[in-house]
Design goal:
10-stranded mixed beta sheet, NAD(P)HX epimerase activity, NAD, lyase, ADP-dependent NAD(P)H-hydrate dehydratase activity, globular, about 45% helix, 11 helices, ATP-binding
Length: about 280
């Protein structure tokens, strides 16, 4: 693959230059949360609210819907049909159709488990999406195996892979994050956030060096996906929102280090830091 040019550094000054003159506040829909992984939807959903989404809708395995509704009283919670193994069933498309079409942004993947059911779910769901969509976790594996799944939302996708998921999307082992992010962005016509590198399909690349190893904690990727979804509900520019989300995610982690160190950080602790990070970034 051709090597992209040097990435532009993501800085607070750059992000402030990108502040839109007028911001909307739309609805974010998060789809995921199988039987064994309901917390992923909670993390992503609260992250979207913390970035200023006007309303939040959470779609999760039916058995967890009531509990999640109590845990996140700010959200509309929809129960989804499950398979016998507890995965979200492909039949969830019938439940989600109207919500997906009306959402300002959609996040699909946090807490999904079964590869075959996830593939079928995306096949039915993505053609119904009207705005930008964020794919994370098992949704990325499905897209990597079946690239045509992304055709209905080409040019409107943000992908948030870790290194392993990036390998699935690329079809080969990842050696260089900049090269891999750029190649995935071009292959899938999507904006990609890979380990602090953001790449757009038109060849633009940015690198955010603010992150640290503490952000590899379990659930941190769900928070990042939710941040992207929340910011896309305010500003539909995919690259701009993704760079903002990555920097907010990293800065929230930096604020926790004095209290938790690098190895004691919990993903849910990032959420409380997000509003203050946004205030600081926008006011300096």
């Amino acid at each position: 693959m051709p090597r992209p040019g040097p990435p532009e550094p993501v800085t607070s000054a750059l992000l402030r230059e990108w502040l839109p003159e007028h911001e909307e506040r739309g609805t974010v829909l998060v789809v995921g949360g199988a039987r064994r992984t309901p917390g992923a939807v909670l993390l992503a959903g609260i992250a979207a609210l913390r970035t200023g989404a006007e309303t939040l809708q959470l779609a999760i395995a039916e058995r967890h819907a009531s509990g999640l509704g109590l845990a996140v009283p700010e959200a509309l919670v929809v129960g989804l049909p499950e398979t016998g193994s507890g995965a979200i069933s492909r039949a969830a498309v019938d439940v989600l159709g109207e919500l997906v079409g009306e959402a300002a942004s959609v996040v699909v993947g946090p807490g999904l488990t079964d590869p075959d059911e996830t593939t079928a779910l995306l096949e039915g769901l993505l053609p119904l999406v009207r705005g930008p969509v964020v794919l994370d976790a098992f949704a990325l594996g499905a897209l990597g195996t079946h690239p045509a799944l992304g055709d209905p939302v080409r040019g409107r996708m943000v992908l948030t892979p870790n290194t392993v998921e990036a390998g699935y999307l690329l079809g080969e082992e990842v050696d260089d994050h900049v090269e891999a992010a750029a190649a995935i962005a071009g292959k899938h016509d999507a904006v990609v956030n890979l380990m602090g590198v953001v790449a757009a399909p038109d060849g633009r690349v940015w690198r955010d060096s603010t992150g640290h190893v503490g952000l590899s904690t379990s659930g941190s990727g769900d928070v990042l996906a939710g941040l992207v979804g929340g910011l896309l509900a305010r500003d539909p520019d995919l690259a701009r929102a993704t760079c903002w989300a990555g920097h907010v995610h990293a800065m929230a982690g930096q604020r926790l280090v004095p209290r938790t160190g690098l190895t004691g950080m919990l993903a849910r602790e990032l959420l409380a830091e997000v509003p203050q990070v946004l205030v600081e970034l926008r006011s300096r």
